[in-house]
Amino acid sequence: MSKHEIIGAVAEQAGEFYNVSELIASSPALQTAFTVLVIGIFAIVAAHRFFSNMIKVRKFNYVRPHLSRFARVGILPFFAIILVTSMNAYIHSFDVFEGAEILGMALAGLTPAETFSKILNTINILVIGYSVAHIIPIMLTKREKSNLEKEDFEAWKDMHGFPDDDEDLFHRFFKWVPPAHRPDGITEEEFEEGLKTKEGRKKLEKFRTSRGTPIGSHEALVDDPFEEWKELERKKYQDYFDHCLSGDNQSGKKLKTGRDVEEIHAIDTWREEKRLGGFDPMVPGARPHGYAAKKRKNVPKSITQILPLGIFAVVALGVVSWWGVDLIVLATATGGLAIGVGLALQETMQNYFAYILIRKDKIFTEGERIKLDTGYNGYVHKITPRVTYIRDALNESFAVIATRQLVNAQIINYSKEVKMVPAIVEVGVSYLNDPRQVSAILVKVGRRVMREVVDTKGRHLVRQTRCPYLENNKPSCGCDNDLYVDVTQPVVRFTGFNDSSLDFSLWLYVRDYGAQFSAKTHMRIIMHEEFKKYDIRIPWPIRTIYHGDEGREQGEIDRLEQERKKAVEEYGTGRFGRGSGED
After folding, report:
1. Contacts 24+ apart (CB under 8 A), 448-451
2. Which of 246, 381, 507, 572 could make an SS bond with 389 (beta carbons 3.0 to 4.6 A apart)?
3. How far apart are CA 404 and CA 352, in angstroms?
4. Which position has the higher pLDDT, 578 or 443?
5. Residue 203: per-residue pLDDT
6. Which candidate, 301, 276, 480, 456, places its Cα nearest to that of 366?
7. Residue-level pLDDT at 22
8. Model confidence at 102, in pLDDT bands (50, 70, 90)?
9. Mean pLDDT of 211-224
10. Predicted confidence (pLDDT) per residue in 481-504, tens digit
11. Least confident of 97-106, 156-165, 246-255, 456-465
């Protein structure tokens, strides 16, 4: 089909729309009714905006966000149906089209009353289609948030309560039932003694096996723990909301509802921020205004967000077809334009689809540490549909890379899934020291680091099969969570004979890439302390010519021989002396 034939076909198919305009021009009664209709539509839009803005500033919009959105969307078809019903009643009651010009009827093939009725029905269909297109995603989002709420409840059970709970809330909901038999990792005597006292039972309840799994089970003390927990979480949110409004918050001022730049989180955002923060308490007014919205600014639209456009497009195409336009001819006419635009925006579209793939497959996300095949190593700062920013760990530079290039690039993600990064410190000791004794001292250093080195929140930097806090009947800091591989720590390696030293390395696995640097610092500090204590000597990196002093130095070292032998007996030699054949 030639270009002129396509244009002619489209013009022919659009003839009914042209005839409708002729009909409206030929009928004063239709013109009056159409004017009233336009005014009514503007009134509906104004009323809807007023109603929506009124709801947005109410507490209801924050504590019941899904119901609030449903009400704001649902009121639109309500107004439209009132308008259309009123217009139809007016037309049939007063016969406003009686005696209308026959010219319009000849041109359009419809009477003025039928034409106007079709316009009214079209408006009704479009408004209802728009509303349904938005109500369905609201329902899907509500279902998704409900599932996340159930996951939060399971996390609450695993943690035996959140930090912002009332005292011992978990045990008002659940009672611990001990196992029938002694678990591995504890003696029969310790197990029996623990069952006799309240403190002992608490300690057993927090006990983890070598696989990191708890022992025993929990029996519900209330009829529906999830529903009661959910109500208590809503009360926490109510307190958060009230503190925001009253000014009794960290910002020191009364926060406002309904602002374009969000000052108060809705309950769904409040839950999500708690989830991302490890369920730590949400401090009212602690974050800058709009913090949560900015954090999600470049997140790609989900299917539920795109769904309204698709549903409304289908409704609009149905209406166009109802008015007599051939959709095949229309698609043919617009196809050429679409191909031209697609070629012009080829790279842009590649970037956008690469962006969608990266987000969907979760190749990496903001905040994760990655290394590119170019050798650049840093944190993902921001992912956009055009470029991705990667920040150097020392904040000295940003790498700005076209997003499409990252789909085919070889990327090492240090923060994905199993978060276990080795922190390795190498050290050389004097040839006059016994390698087995040195290995034992390094094992002691590693165990001290595992127990003593924590971050500013008191969480251990080193991953371990069971958190040391549990031995003191305290909650785990999480260093023993999500550990799906068998790891024996610390690991000591005798790596070689250097010119002036025996070379060793001490390995510990830390919880993430950034934690290794702090862990290495503490490993070196504690290593220096223990080496001084046991007279383990680190030789100067120079060539030393001995003139009969070796015997004297050996005598000095032998003075602490018994202490070093005790260290070997107490701490062992790690994997140094096992002959496991491991690399």
Report:
1. 448/526, 448/530, 449/490, 449/508, 449/519, 449/522, 449/523, 449/526, 450/489, 450/490, 450/508
2. 381
3. 8
4. 443
5. 82
6. 276
7. 60
8. very low
9. 83
10. 766 566 778 999 999 998 889 999
11. 97-106
Counts for the chain of helices (H) and strands (E), in that order: 20, 10
What is d(CA 10, CA 310) in angstroms, rounded to the nearest whole number? 24
Q: How far apart are the C-alpha atoms of 290 and 255, rounded to whole Å?
A: 12
Eight-state DSSP code of residue 281:
P
- Tell me the pLDDT tens digit for each residue of 36-85: 778 887 888 888 888 888 888 889 899 999 888 888 888 877 777 787 77
User: What average pLDDT does range 196-201 have in this prediction?
Assistant: 86
Cα distance between residue 274 and residue 223, in whole Å: 26
H-helix segments, 278-366: 291-295, 303-322, 327-344, 346-361
CA distance 30 to 17: 15
Q: Report how far residue 162's alpha carbon sits from residue 391's, in angstroms, rounded to the nearest whole number.
A: 33
CA distance 390 to 574: 39
Token code pair at residue 229: 């927990």
State the number of CA atoms in the 13 A half-sphere of 467 facing the CB.
Answer: 25
Cα–Cα distance, 379 to 388 (Å, whole number): 11
Cα 74 off chain centre by: 30
Helix H or strand E segment including 536: none
Distance of alpha carbon 80 from alpha carbon 119, whole angstroms: 13
Give the separation between CA 107 and CA 19, rounded to whole angstroms.
6
Query: Residue 427 phi/psi, 5° resolution?
Result: -150, 150
Dihedral (C-alpha) 319, 323, 327, 328: value to the nearest 10 degrees? 160
Comparing CA positions, the residue from 482, 502, 478, 481 lying closest to residue 492 is 502
Picking from 34, 49, 135, 145, the residue whose alpha carbon sits closest to that of residue 90 is 34
Task: Kindly report which listed range (71-80, 137-146, 322-331) carries the lowest average pLDDT score.
Answer: 322-331
Residue written as token pair 């959709």: 327
Across-strand partners of 422? 509
341-388, pLDDT tens digit by residue?
A: 666 667 777 777 888 888 777 788 887 888 888 888 888 888 887 888
Q: Tokens 């909650």 identify what position?
A: 475
Tokens of 281: 């308490």
Tokens found for residue 227: 């529903």
| Total length of the chain | 583
Structure tokens at 444: 């002691």
Q: Looking at residues 249-270, what average pLDDT do you find?
A: 88
Contacts with 471 (C-beta within 8 Å, 6 or more apart), sequence order: none
Return the number of other C-beta atoms located less than 10 Å from residue 384's C-beta: 14
